[in-house]
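ingest -> fold -> write
write: protein_1
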Amino acid sequence: MNRFEGLTKPSTLTAGSAFLLGGILDLVLLTVSDPFSEIVQTPLYAVRSVLLLVGGLLLVLALISVYERRAKKIGPFGFSAVIVAGAGTILISGLFWAQAFLYPTLGRVAPELLDGLVRPGSLSFGLLLTAAVFGVGWALVGIAMLRVRVYQFTPAALILLGGLVSLLPTNTLGQAVLGIGLVLLAFSPSYRKHEGPQRHGDVAPHPQQQP
């Protein structure tokens, strides 16, 4: 058992649950007709943002744990996918931090910025870059899981789909789909400690002879 073995299931399950709940709350907030600058000051938005921030931070640990467990089988393509997904997760965690702690203040002092009346080019570029790196990275992780076939098809496919949907900036529907995939992955049989029958050629220990 490597040092990440015990962290794989709890980190994946918690990150997935946080992304799923945060995505659901985000969809609920989309039904509110108030300006976005007012929505970001509500308790529901605060809960949503903190959930996604916690999910983003734990997602980094879950990504490392999942990769460490199957590093040899995932291979170079999987390693590249993990690097891109890790970079995207760090970027989106920074966005979630801003949404949790900075956006409520901007809603009071600069509402035109959040309501889209004024959108500096650097902010638009940053949002597009974050969505692109995060979405492409997790789509690649899903593809890598499907290629090596050591994970169940459904969670791997949902992780791939979640990455693709996450390519849409400022849309957390992709994170909700990704969250479902992570929750299912946490309960995947691949997390069992038993890795299957002994390899051919392994010599089983002889039972002790009775005196």
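write: protein_2
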Amino acid sequence: MFFGDIPDKFENLSKLYEIIAGYNQFSSKIPKSTVFSERLAILGLAGNRLDGNIPKEILELSDLRDLRLAQNSLSGSFPIEVGGLKQVGFLDISNNQLAGASWISANEAEGRARKNASTN
């Protein structure tokens, strides 16, 4: 079992395909350095003690297909307007303190993003 902060050392891991570190005791925020891995397709950090906002940069990853952030203490609002979200096939953000829906499918989020963009 791992605990403490998630290491902020992803800058040199540009070919990293997946991060699966769920159900440990990581705490603090999701480091923005996770976006340095341009090929990241799976980010699984469910069941930790993460807090703060979901960095919108994560959802800008063009290869991201699977995002599992459930059962943490993430707060703020989920950045559904980010264009990369349309690539995500599985999304679970349930059991956090996020504003809005506790679980939405990628298709639903993409539809909401389009609706929000058309009203602006």
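write: annotation protein_2
The mean pLDDT is 80.
The chain has one domain: 3-119.
pipeline exit 0
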